[in-house]
User: Fold this.
Amino acid sequence: MEGLSKYRQVADSQLIILAKNGESEAFGEIFSRYWGGIFRKLSRQLDFHADAEDLSQEVFEKALRSLSVYQERGFPVGSWLFKIAENHLKNYYRAKNRHSKVVQPLADWFEGVAPSGIEELVDRLDLRAAVEKVTGGDEKKKWLLAAGVLIASGMLSFEVYKRLKEQGKVDAPTHGAFKIQRHRLVTKLKSVLRVEEQEKGTKV
Assistant:
């Protein structure tokens, strides 16, 4: 907390200027000031505490990415963040509705309806060679990659983690560790797929 104390008396508008100039601690102070309000706003409209946490985190990630284009013009930082939260919630529900036809079959498969388990999904996505290269055949690593497909299709990250953990299909002790492990594997998979695509191009 000591690193943030020097900014506690600084106005929001000045914090934005500092954050734009690369002062990460200044944005950390903005996060501290508004996280609770953003979380409460989202949690009132979502069924699960973890969903509100995920979406709140994404609101601040989007704000950080958008700093370069933010201009106050009578629109205070707090109002800007709550507007991002409102739009993010709308997009969340739109995506949920849009993916409903995809999510249910995946959710059914996820619950064990498909007898072939993870191998069926790997074959369905035509990724066997790349997945084997990335995971070395490790079943739990394959489940981490499958989790990425489920999350991209509309299921919430915490819910996927909870179910996988309950079923003993991942070793990550926390949701945060699960996200880090999944990100590393997905990054590695993308790299392998890019190499495969380049190799195909050179053969044409």
